[in-house]
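Weekly modeling sync, notes
Attendees: S.R. (lead), two postdocs, one rotation student

Agenda item 3: backlog of single-chain predictions. S.R. asked that every request posted to the team notebook include the full sequence so nobody has to chase files. The rotation student volunteered to paste the first one in as an example of the format we agreed on. Action items at the bottom.

Example entry:
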Amino acid sequence: MVEFEKRFSTEEACRTYLLQVRWPDGFRCPECDSNQSWKTSRDTLFCIACKRQTSVTAGTIFDRTRQPLELWFKAIWLIVSEKNGISALGLQRQLGLSRYETAWTMLKRLRHAMVRPGRELLSGKVEVDETLVGGPTAGRKGRDYEGKALVVIAAEKDGNKTGRIRMKKIPDASSETLESFIQANIEKDSLVETDGWKGYRGLTKLKYKHRCINGESVGIDELLPRVHQAASLLKRWLLGTHQGGVDKTNFDSYLDEFTFRFNRRASGSRGKLFRRLIEQAVQITPAYKM
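Predicted structure, as returned to the notebook:
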């Protein structure tokens, strides 16, 4: 933290870093692609060719924010340096913010940035299953999920380990919903392993190899173990970091953060995670204002 605060102690230092991350080969005008520009007194870049002025934060998650970049950078550092993440209340306290809503909105934008545009699809052997988040409901069995969040999970097989994962909150476990998720997240010709639920029966028609695993034949502990591990860790994370107080209307943003952390769990460098999140933050425009 001392080293971080020394490097990003001013707004100018943060803007310079953001400029380098966004245009590593030098500024290119988003309008005409010219590399000829000069910096104005308002910290914008003036294109000599087409006369357009561009802010380093325009078109990023930092666009039109009232918070200084110094605060944003510190928030990002706190998020990536905490192994299990940080709640909006914890972020509010550490940043010294007067309003909880400010911390909550900052976290929402940053979670949005955790989904990298054009990310590679899962491939090879991939387990897929659904899970209920929110705990068991007495008297309910199978895929009866009334009052709970239904989440579909895909987990790559990496030898005996778990590779990358994908998660999404879904309204139901119909074949249309499950197939849409699989097509959006798994490469064609991959081997998709599922249980015997009827919603997966049409995968071969979609050019996937499909293996149906019967829980009675292999034992419950061996049935899709990577998906079950990811589901268990997700529930533990939601309870531990967020005390189960998750806004169901924005539930996918929590899944995005968990996926970002899980897929980078082997990284020992907080600095690399910080840069990666900054890189993704400048590629994404938020769909909401702050």
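Discussion: group reviewed the output briefly. Confidence is low (pLDDT under 50) at residues 136-140.
Action items: rotation student to repeat for the remaining queue; S.R. to check formatting next week.
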